[in-house]
Amino acid sequence: MNYAKYTNGAVTAAPKQKAKAAAQKRRRIPDGLAAQERHRRSTCRPPEVSPCGAAAYGFLKTRFLPHYTGQAIAGGTEKDDFYRSLKLLCKHYKVKTVETKGFAYPYGREVALYETGRLLNDKYSQHIGLELLEHNGSFVIQATETCYTGNTLFYIPVLPLHYIMQDKKHRKGARLLLCVFSYLFHTVNIPYYTEDSFLYWHYEMVSEWVQNDPDDWEYKDYYDYVSQLRAAQHYGETMLRRIWNTIHFDHFGEWLKAFTPCDDLDRECHRIAQKFFTLWHDYPETSFHKHADTTCLPDYENDDYDDYECITMEKYVGFVAATDGWLYENVQQSVNACFNESLSKQEPVLKRFFDGQSQDNDTLDFECRLFPLLNELCYLLNNYDYDIKRTTLPT
Question: Phi/psi class of residue 366: alpha, beta or left (left: φ > 0; alpha: ψ in -120 to 50)?
């Protein structure tokens, strides 16, 4: 076939590859990188009217009504009793709640209790809880007023006042605080740590722990601990004799009116004493445990009852020697150890039934004013620099 070609002879060699271009010589890295050219700003601008904010913010500001999963109640007198009692409650506390009679019952009841409770807690300093109960054959609303004290130990230090009285410049201001102490001891009935009380037992326990085993302590530490114990006992009894003296109780208003402050400490003493004097004038014979809740106390008729099941009010309110130093740290640890074993805490509580009977004028205003004032008094005594060397007693 004439289209096929045959080559006679040897196979020709492959062409020789050419060498690549020579590699450039390595150059030194420049000292500084060249500044990169920034992108130019776009000429496009957002419109003057921006879109609305995120939808989540509106969601967080929305207030939802209570959700009730039960079935509607038909018939009976519960609905009429509830709204009758609610009207009496709103009249007593002087609040105007939302109208819920058009809602299905008991959904309307839950909405009314929720909104009324919110209005009451916004208006009054004490917490007011509402609950519908069956009372004497009808349904009534029970309002439980509670003065919350939190986890605060209202321990009033006595030795700082003794140190202020050593300064002649502040002796008249200290006399006003001594009048406050006398009022709290005689009228409010706050227990004192050197008398038969809960705190007295803890001070005695720490004292026996130190003095019964002197060899277990370093000599310097033992001297310091015993000195603090003796100072707490000696100056505590001295201050108690002053507090017992009724002259401070009788001339409280007279000395308060004639007092002229000369520095910040005097002004603070006068301000706090004025508040306590006003409280005494408004409630001349009211004790701090007048409205103490008794439902949380253990059953004393039961042989297995434990006195430490409940933290009663006299356990976290009282006069102490001082709130600093080794002695108070150990007393506080001993008190907290007892509190950790307790199941409940006693606080001022006042309950009302709105069943058509007239309500008395009793309130928790005294307790709601007393405990913040105790905080102010303790803050003054604990945090002011007295510039006086605190004395101790030799062992």
Answer: alpha
